[in-house]
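Me: I keep going back and forth on a fold encoding question. No explanation is needed for now; the record alone will do.

Assistant:
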Amino acid sequence: MRRKGVILLDGLMALFLISALAVMVLPLAGSWLSALERGRTGTKLSETGLFAMDFMVEKIRNNRIRAVGGVRGNGYNYQAFTAGGSEGTYRFFVDREKLKLQLYNDNIQPLTGEYTGPEAYAFLPGRPSLFRQAEGGPVTISFTMHHQMMGMDRDFETSVIPYADFYKKGEAYE
């Protein structure tokens, strides 16, 4: 009889120690999971922003028309070859916190986010605008990728000179 009481007491002490350890570890596990989620969200913001930036830089660099006047605003037109081999006009623009591309045939494709509905990841134009260019100069692209729920931001900014402006397309070569 005496032995059963000791075993029961040992079992209760072990259960108490395991419970105390669990109570101490749970906040640590919660903060670890929170940090993991913040890291995943930051990675998604960076990947989406870098994709959008890389895509815009490539298309603007290969623009087949020169800038006439200055460009300032949240839209940018560029010319490129279509699937049929002719030149068509494409347009970057921001609509409902998403970057979209209007194709030469007026179809619209989202570059960030989905077609409809609210987004967890918002594409916000930079200040004062997404695109800025003085005539013949570089196009400055500036925007922020924002996560609605976590309040995280990733800012992106770069400049690119379109080849048509750099090589002064349409002017006599000296």
Notes: The chain is about 35% helix and 30% strand.
